[in-house]
Amino acid sequence: MERTFREQLFVLLLSLSVLKGDCRYMENNEISKDELYSFFNSELKRETPEELMFRRPLRCLDMIAVEGRFTFTAERPQLSCAAFFIAEPNEVITVDYDGVDIDCSGGDFITVFDGWVMKGEKFPSSQDHPLPLYERYVDYCDSGSLRRSVRSSQNVAMVFFRVHNPGSTFTLTVTKHINPFPCNVISQSPEGAYTMVIPQQHRNCSFSIIYPVEIDISEFSLGQINHFTKRSRPACAETGDFVQLLGGNGIDTSKLLPITDLCVSFTGPTHLKVGCDNTVVRVVSSGKFVSRVSFSYRLLDSQELQTIKLNNVEDFCFNN
């Protein structure tokens, strides 16, 4: 594998598919790859008081992982801009508009999207998000003062914007809030451990790891298996409650390929190495039971990736 998914993330931004399916190419800018990567691991202290709030300019192409106030001021027309926001797995993001001075009637817009969009793909997928797609876009020019604050449903959100006139400006205030029942998550880190719980809700939840990793599923419990005898147990998809492990090179889970399905409750480790740009643990829940899956993950080293490549697993990751 030549690139991790995080590297491809910024390459894909160059052909970002933006608002309502229109494809536009990102403008050239002065953001370095290292600057963007640094946002994932920033340890800037969060402060609530207004005078201590973190502030910096917002760039046309930006990645933000901290709370703060971010101001964009156009020095020239910027026709295809996007800012990606990411929080911890157990957090959601609120984006507030402030000091907006753009020409809506002249074609300018600022649109918050509940999730991420890249190269025509969306996270969470339409199958996994609680809102219909049209409700996930909130356009400032359409809503104005009626909707000056937008909260995400998961730990990622993004803002598309276009301005034509030099001097046009706006400010976004980004805050984070604890989510007691996280569902769809993109991990900031290539290593970690997580437990996903769905408390008797009819929904699908995904944990997306944008790195090639080894997954160790240590425990999961789906509840429904006690209702089936060993001889009558149906296929996983027929039970209505199961865990999927998916892999591929995009962010839309509905377009990733299934590696394995798990639907028999157990305690004990299951190790799987996935050399894909994106590795996803997905829980499908009927809402009749409390579903729970615990897993840990670590980044595969170059030797492990080479072994996967020699075993032709790379075709699985890239030819989907």
Task: Give a written overview of the molecule.
- The protein is mostly beta strands and 320 residues long.
- The chain folds into two domains: 55-178, Jelly Rolls (Sandwich), CATH 2.60.120; 187-224 and 236-311, Spermadhesin, CUB domain (Jelly Rolls, Sandwich), CATH 2.60.120.
- Helices cover 12% and strands 42% of the residues.
- The protein has helices spanning 5-12, 33-38, 140-143, 236-239, 302-310, 313-318, and strands spanning 55-57, 61-64, 68-73, 78-86, 91-101, 109-113, 116-118, 121-123, 137-139, 149-151, 156-163, 169-178, 185-187, 192-199, 204-209, 213-221, 242-248, 257-262, 266-274, 278-284, 290-299.
- It has a five-stranded mixed sheet with strand order 1-3-12-5-10, with no helix packed on it. Strands 2-4-11-6-9 form a five-stranded mixed sheet. A five-stranded mixed sheet has the order 13-15-20-17-18.
- Strand 7 and strand 8 form a beta hairpin.
- Residues 1-23 form the signal peptide.
- GO terms for molecular function: corticotropin-releasing hormone binding.
